Amino acid sequence: MREKTGRRDELASSRLRVGAAIRERRLAAGLSLAELADRIGVALSTMSKIENGKISTSFERLDSVSRALQADITEFLGTAVPMAMQQSSAYGMRRSITRPEDGTMVDAGSYLEWFHASDMLQKRFQPVVAELLIEDVAEYGAFTQHSGEEFNYVLEGEMEFHTEIYAPVRLTAGSSIYFDAEMKHAHVRVGSSSCRILAILCPRMEPLGAASPDRRSMRIVDPHGKASAPVADK
């Protein structure tokens, strides 16, 4: 599916950039690869593949890593201004402009995500433009779940939104949805035409480094909302 976008080199660069930033932050925190894998509840082999840019990294997993390393998620995108330059005294005077060519792209597997205002740390919310790559929810895998609330506005095309609780709903350009992101959810595009959404991700106001939900026992939810037995993350 991702090969159809014609961005293979850009996707590989995205994965390498994010992985290298995670490794640098982990080493600065004095953690081994195994310790970080244990903290976020993934296999050691998975953590190694993330750091080496071999697999995509979802927002959910980036959020878990940022909390485990007591870091701002923006630090993994490679464009943030150092913390020392973003003192609280500057609040009320900050601004960030993202032009079309400046968005920081992240390969998130089922999505391509362009993070906006990625040069600004300690934001109250994270704006992202996402291109949906999956047409069949059966290909999505385990539904997404992360801390906080999320707002989605359909910019282009049509998407089908799935959750573990509600029946799927289809939304066309100009429509929006606001939901609790702890509720397992998945986005798929309708048809083969391009579908892009604006997502506003608003984490709960938890301190960085707070314990994350145990991802090792996530339930897998099928397209009909039926949950299977807990499975270990791979």
Name its key features.
single chain; 234 residues; alpha+beta; Jelly Rolls; six-stranded antiparallel β-sheet; three-stranded antiparallel β-sheet; 4 helices; 20% helix; globular
What can you see in these coordinates?
This protein is an alpha+beta fold. It has a single domain, classed as Jelly Rolls. The protein is 20% helix and 22% strand. Strands 1-2-3-9-4-7 form a six-stranded antiparallel beta sheet. α2 packs across α3. It is globular.
SSE string, helix = H, strand = E? HHHHEEEEEEEEE
Taken from the alpha-carbon principal axes, the silhouette is globular
The number of helical elements comes to: 4
Distance between the termini: 22 Å
Rg for CA atoms = 17 Å
Number of domains: 1
Q: CATH homologous superfamily?
A: Jelly Rolls
Uncertain spans: 82-86, 207-223, 227-234
CATH fold group: Jelly Rolls
Roughly what fraction of the amino acids lie in strands?
15-25%
| Beta strand count | 9
**Multimerization state:** single chain
Largest sheet descriptor: 6 strands, antiparallel
What is the helical fraction, as a range of percent?
10-25%
Strand order of the largest sheet: 1-2-3-9-4-7
The CATH class is Mainly Beta
Mean of residue pLDDT values: 81
- Assign the structural class, choosing from mainly alpha, mainly beta, alpha/beta, alpha+beta, or little secondary structure: alpha+beta
Annotated CATH architecture: Sandwich
